[in-house]
Amino acid sequence: MDDEDSFISFNLICPECGVGNPEGAEYCLVCDRDLQETILFMEDDPFDLEVTRDFLIEYRKNFWGTRRTGKIEKYSWDKMEDVHFGFPVNRFIFNYQDRRVVLPLREENMQMMKRLFKE
Ligand SMILES: [Zn+2]
User: Fold this and answer.
1) How far is the CA of 51 from the centre of ligand 1 (A)?
2) How far is the CA of 82 from the centre of ligand 1 (A)?
3) 88 C-alpha vs ligand 1 centroid, how far in Å?
4) Domain containing 19: what range?
5) pLDDT bracket for residue 5 (50, 70, 90)
6) Contact between 90 and 105 (Cβ < 8 Å)
7) How far is the CA of 106 from the centre of ligand 1 (A)?
8) 83 and 107, same structural domain?
9) What are the pLDDT digits (tens) for 40-84?
10) From ligand 1's centre to the CA of 37, what distance in Å?
11) What percent of the chain lies above the pLDDT cut of 90?
């Protein structure tokens, strides 16, 4: 159905500098950041999201989505409750320390998150 598998994928985006690295790379080609802990990295409009084994990390961006503000939210997967996906609007929703967190996601990022949860 899709040709995705025939691409050489540089899907492992470095959370530090944003450069795409080949899957399985241990360190970023450009800035040398350790990529081992990063399972998934997604660029979205209001934030970048990094998924590690223990945390979901949100790097907030400015209003225009052009750069990061330096504000970082770190959510432990263990402490998330009532995790679900919004429908029909693409959103990742969960409760965290008595607070409701709603992360609007682009379609492609929504698909990646869903795939992650199926594994
Ligand atoms: Zn890098």
Assistant:
1) 16
2) 33
3) 34
4) 1-36
5) low
6) yes
7) 23
8) yes
9) 889 999 999 999 989 999 999 999 989 999 999 999 999 999 999
10) 13
11) 70
**Tokens 């992360």, residue located:** 103
With 50 as the cut, is the pLDDT of residue 1 above it? no
Instruction: Specify the number of domains making up the chain.
Output: 2
Q: How far apart are CA 68 and CA 47, in angstroms?
A: 7
Ligand 1: distance of its center to the CA of 15 in Å? 7
Query: Are 96 and 81 in contact, with CB atoms under 8 Å apart?
Result: yes
CA atoms within 13 A on the CB side of 13: 13
